[in-house]
Amino acid sequence: WFVALFSSRPSTTRKMSGMLRNFSLSMTSHQLWPTSARLSSSLAGRKLMVANRGEISCRVMRTARDLGMKTVSVHSEVDAMAQHAKQSDETVCIGPAPSIQSYLVIDNVLKAMKETGTEFVHPGYGFLSENAAFSDACAQNGIKFVGPEKKAIDAMGDKIMSKQIAIDAGINTIPGFQGVIKDEDEAVKISNEIGYPVMIKAR
Whole-model pTM? Predict the structure, then answer.
């Protein structure tokens, strides 16, 4: 929505501005978000895991602590002394250094959540944050996933699908090829048609 507000297309800007205005008017203050005191009271003492590493983990845990929550981090074997692991109340090793053997392994993260009695999990960004199977697994194990629902993850996790959704909504997007490139020859052909410079993005 906010991207659309800065669109150069007047009709899109008016349409999205109206949607935001109607949304704001339809919501009363008590519906939007509970006060800090109410939120802290409801979450105090409860346990949140951040299934990520680095700065995003530190920031999420800092907010969780402000709300009175207990924090759990996960780390690979080489990240045991990383800041996110040091700053959490508990930390669990979930595998070797390669992320494909640790941070990206759903079963390892789920095991850590069960071992620590985690009630909420925040995926951070990257890693499992765009994996609908992870949010499903959390739900099946009674753990609240702090993030969007499966439908949104499926849509936004696929670059082609997410761009098409934006196009269908009338939002300005960067011109380019809307599909999967088969090989180098096709990449060169499409690039010549679009005009340089071009950016190639993994799906």
Answer: 0.69
